[in-house]
Structures are given as C-alpha cells and as structure tokens.
Amino acid sequence: NSILNVNHVTKTYRSGGLFKRNRRITHAVNDVSFTVPQGGTIGIVGESGSGKSTLARCIIKLLNIDEGQIEFDNVNIADLKGKTLRQYSRNIQMVFQDPYASLNPRKKVGEQVAIGPQLYGMTKQSAMEKAKVLFKLVGLDSEAVHRYPHEFSGGQRQRIGLARALALEPKILVADEPVSALDVSVQEQVLQLLAELREKLGLTLIFITHDLRVAAQICDSIIVMKNGNIVEQGLASQVFTKP
Ligand code: ADP
Ligand code: ADP
C-alpha cells in the first residue's frame, strides 16, 4: 500500500558557463530511496542546500532524474506521457512557502483557484462554485473568492494556496516549507488545517522543511538530508528521540 516509491534516485546539476573553469557539477540528490505509504505523511528535513527542493521537483516531474526510479502506484513516472502524464500531474500538487509569489495580484483569488479545474475541462461557472466550496474547506469565507491577493494575511494566503492545490483533487500533496514564512501562532493553525485535510480527504503528504520542530509535529516518518544524501531515516518518533 505504498503510493510513492523513490528508488536510488540521483540528480546532478551541471551548471554551464562559457569558460570551463566556471562549469560546476552539483550532486544535489545522491542515491536517495524511501517509500511513502498511502495516507501517510513523510517529512523531508534538512538545512538549506541539502537537496530537498530538488527532490521535490523530481517527484513532481518538473525535473528529470539521472539515475534510479520514482514510482507512483507502481508505475515508473519516467514512462508517463500524454494523458497518463496529465493524470499524474493532477494527482500530485504542490504548495509553496510563499503562495503570494505565485498568485496573480490583479486577479480575484477565486478565479485563480478555478483555473486548474477549468484546464481539466470544468466550466467556469462550476469551477467558481468549486472554489467557494474549497474556500470553506480551508477555513475561509466563501465570499472571499471575490477578493484580491493583497487583501489577505500570510496565513490566509497559505489557505488559498491549499485551496488551489486541492482544486484538482490530488492524491499527494507536496508542501515545500508551507509554514516557514508564518508567525509561530499562525504556523500552528496551518499545520492543524493540513492535518485535518489529510484525514478528511485521505491525502498523502510530503512535507519539506528545515524546521525539525514542525516536522516532528505533523510527520509520521522522516528522512533527514545533508549534501544530497539521506543521513537519517525512520519513524518521526525514533528520529527525534535520538540524542
Ligand atoms: P534545499 O531545497 O534543501 O535548500 P536544493 O535542492 O535547493 O536544496 O539545492 C541542493 C543543491 O543543488 C545546492 O547545492 C544548490 O546550490 C544546488 N542547486 C539547486 N538548484 C540548482 C540549479 N538550478 N542549478 C545548479 N545547482 C542547483
Ligand atoms: P498540459 O496542458 O501541458 O497537460 P496543464 O496546462 O493542464 O498541462 O497543467 C499544467 C500543470 O499545472 C498541471 O499539473 C496542472 O495540474 C497544474 N495546474 C494548472 N493550474 C493549476 C491551478 N490553478 N492550481 C493547481 N495546479 C494547477
């Protein structure tokens, strides 16, 4: 019952440069393996530069890996194309540290949440209705769909980011530092919401953070990365009780 299998994955960046001396090879992700059970929450923890985001980008297939396999429902995602790739993209959605960066400042937030469903064939009217339902689901007023991004606080914008990701009814949600830009009290509320949504929707969560305290709070298992390698791996309770 594992939904995602990451098997000996390696991703290397070869940075260009007109001159040979400027060319660099970075082993961003090095022989990384783990499995994510359906409905579970795995934490990918590590300091800045440890390879967390690269790994996330490989999982959502924004980057192609150099070695290894990533399997979703036992299918190698490298083999997906056309329709099956579209299905995969839909099934794995991402939320970011700062949803403000990806929200269009000039467009009503509800319309932005409705874009995804429309890309997948929903009418604008149904997609807007869906946006209202999603706003309620993430703890916002359904009438807030008519507002613009700057009218919301950081925590509320993270809720909008969640609504947008959930609009496509994904099986997996990849959250990249979703609470790192928020005040501690607001962090608690958003983590609480994520845990609720996970239960209610049967979501599988991949939670990326540099913050051990936050990871301990929401994850059942953890991998700790350093310089592209997994340096520790196990149940959250085990990883965090080590001296
Ligand atoms: P984290 O998310 O843990 O901060 P990253 O995955 O962003 O780590 O980075 C891992 C390593 O890969 C770092 O050394 C970083 O400098 C390097 N890196 C990240 N993105 C690129 C890129 N597009 N080109 C070259 N090197 C990169
Ligand atoms: P293509 O037409 O190339 O198959 P799409 O344009 O349908 O791809 O979508 C590209 C990706 O962006 C998909 O993974 C889709 O799920 C995602 N996406 C598009 N709009 C949204 C949105 N509003 N919220 C979340 N994800 C979105």
- Largest sheet, spatial ordering of strands: 6-7-8-3-9-10
Radius of gyration: 18 Å
Tell me the structural class. alpha/beta
**Strand residue percentage:** 25-35%
According to DSSP, the number of beta strands is: 10
Structural write-up:
There is one protein chain. The protein has about 240 residues and is α/β, with parallel strands linked by helices. It has nine helices and ten strands. The chain has helices spanning about 50-60, 80-90, 100, 110-120, 125-135, 155-165, 185-200, 210-220, 235-240, and strands at about 1-15, 25-35, 40-45, 65-70, 75, 90-95, 170-175, 205-210, 220-225, 230-235. The strands form two sheets. Strands 6-7-8-3-9-10 form a six-stranded mixed sheet, with helices on both faces. The chain has a four-stranded antiparallel sheet with strand order 2-1-4-5, with helices on one face. A hairpin with a 2-residue loop joins β9 (about 220-225) and β10 (about 230-235). α4 (about 110-120) packs across α5, α4 (about 110-120) runs parallel beside α6 (about 155-165) and α5 (about 125-135) packs across α6 (about 155-165). The mean pLDDT is about 95. One adenosine-5'-diphosphate binds near residues 90, 116, 167 and 168.
Short description:
Helix content is 37%, strand content 28%. The chain is built from 9 helices and 10 strands.
